[in-house]
Design a protein that fits this description.
six-stranded mixed beta sheet, 14 strands, single chain
Length: 420
Amino acid sequence: RMYIERAVEERVRGLLEMFPVVSIIGARQVGKTELVKHIGKTADRNYLTLDDVGILTRALEDPHGFIDSLPCPTTIDEVQRAPNLLLAIKKRIDVEKKSGAFLLTGSSKFDAIKGIKESLAGRTAIVRLYPFTINEINGARLGDIPFFNFLKCESASEVLNAVPQRKTRFQEFNLKDLVLKGGYPPISIRDDHQYRSDWFSQYISTYIERDIPPILDVRDIPHFMNFLKAVSATSARQTNYSDMARDVRTSNDTIIRWFNTLETTFVAQRIYPYWRNIRKRIAKAPKIFFQDSGLMSHILGINSFTEAVKMNYDGQLLETWVYQQLASLSSLANRKADLYFYRTYTGQEVDFVLESGERLLAIEIKNGRTLHTQDYEGILSFVEMMKKRRKCAGIVLYNGPESFPISKEVAALPITSFFV
């Protein structure tokens, strides 16, 4: 299979020149192995994976002897399978003090991040790898992605000027198909519906068999599967733990623990409402997002966008897909960009609020080909309120082909022109 360049690759290479250890984390099958092997080809790195039973056995039996026997630089794939290696790595890099000595990958926050942060504090950079974005599928280089220019905008005119000055590519993208495929590399570049269904079925089986047992009691697993289906049905919606507990027939504490498990294994993520008082952000009900719209559609049994419309999931699937793009691109911004949503007690809302330093970018998602006044009332209200205190612009993304201003600070753009 042809290697598709990842937007994060340039950053990983730069970090390897600065830190003795770089750790790449992310869900299974997002392409961590392909990425580190590709980097290793041009940097002459030794590569080994702890999915190999023989290598894993040696690593578990004598972690210090195992690490001391390795040439540097070395890449270790699936390091969470032998967490004691981290202390051995720490000991070696403290003696040798070489940048880029170890490149690690891990598929579970529970083991990988906890161990990496505790054992390698100050010695490692941690990079999150997400499923493919539309930019990566399209072969765009990091510097050509318009998203980063939108983050700097303070007015509708600046937003419109940030749209790449090339012939519109609106017709080139089947957005509905992109949403149903999601971004897992084996799926996103194929058009075989049966293969997609079989692949996702195997993915869920592997996830339940390998990632869940170390975290949850085995007796929880059948109920956890019901929970997984319930979460997929509420992706892109605010989550009420009590309602979810009642629907799944379990306790609030269990629901919270299961949400933590989804985040730990990179299947879903909670984002919190934007509020000027930071403490209030944590206190409000979060939105839950599946990390991949393709996996979400499979769990819901959706095989076409027509089915999604009939089942009334089309808006949630689209918003989940947009979340995937924003979460991945935000992690690559030169200045950290945090992702929130906004909702008032009276029901006015904005789907996404990106906070980057003193700047805010509000984004509203609409599935229609035309826009109506009620489609952007919430974002107009939010931007009007926030511009008195912060640099703030707004963008309404929709399924039509035209870009145009809505107000002085808010513009409408086709969804694909925002990302490509």
